[in-house]
Specification:
4 helices, alpha+beta, 8-stranded antiparallel β-sheet, about 240 residues, 3-stranded antiparallel β-sheet, Jelly Rolls
Length: about 240
């Protein structure tokens, strides 16, 4: 049902002072409609129900889609990013995600950039599915610490520093986080382009770049800002 476009184009970005590798693959599938059609037939559940701060609703990806993506991108991790060959790719979760939350309903943590986890060799895969002029994905630096990635060694310091800034300066503006502030510096915006797939480390500070919520927020998976999100890590099975 899913076919990878053999003529797809990919490029590597090295983001910020930490030169974090980010892969962008344009025209990834021959056709994204099968994924959209599948998602439209599923029941989406809200962020609190799927136990994270995603500002919308999610439903699991189908196995065919997930395996097609993973089989296509696995060589990139070893041959381009340089993951050690003794580590094995392990999918953690995969969801079709639909941005549905209006700014007035955002919680504090949803008004700031975030990281997915602190594990080394852990990555997020993001695939823009629907046609449309939607907001992309932004990458940030935390100004007080200078951190762009939050790994296990940095997490405690980062959390304390971020909380201190909020306690001192006040809560962030009650909106989707976009441009630089005195707390975070915008490093890069990866624009929304239908059928664009992005791979980035889960430690990287990021946020959906939603400057026009009236355009991006939608309850319709057939026409809204529908993405596929797969989280993977590389583990040592020989331990």
């Amino acid at each position: 049902m899913y076919r990878v476009n053999q003529k797809s184009k990919n490029r590597m970005l090295y983001v910020g002072l930490e030169k974090t590798p980010v892969i962008i693959i344009d025209d990834f599938l021959e056709d994204t409609k099968p994924a959209v059609n599948y998602a439209c037939k599923q029941q989406f559940i809200g962020g609190k129900e799927h136990n994270n701060y995603y500002p919308g609703e999610r439903t699991p990806v189908d196995t065919d889609y997930g395996m097609t993506v993973l089989n296509a991108i696995a060589p990139i991790f070893y041959n381009v990013i340089g993951i050690p060959s003794h580590l094995t790719l392990q999918p953690k979760s995969g969801s079709y995600s639909l941005l549905t939350q209006h700014e007035k309903d955002l919680e504090l943590m949803q008004c700031l950039p975030h990281f997915d986890n602190t594990e080394m060799f852990s990555f997020a895969v993001l695939h823009y599915l629907n046609d449309g002029d939607f907001g992309g994905t932004a990458l940030y630096k935390h100004k007080p610490t200078g951190y762009e990635n939050i790994n296990a060694a940095r997490k405690s310091h980062y959390m304390e520093s971020a909380q201190h800034h909020i306690d001192t300066v006040g809560n962030p503006e009650h909106k989707y986080f976009t441009r630089s502030t005195d707390h975070y510096e915008l490093l890069e915006v990866i624009e929304y382009k239908p059928n664009r797939l992005i791979i980035y480390p889960s430690t990287l500070l990021h946020s959906a770049f939603i400057e026009n919520p009236k355009k991006d927020v939608s309850n319709c998976p057939a026409s809204g800002r529908l993405t596929a999100n797969i989280f993977i890590e590389f583990i040592n099975n020989k331990k």
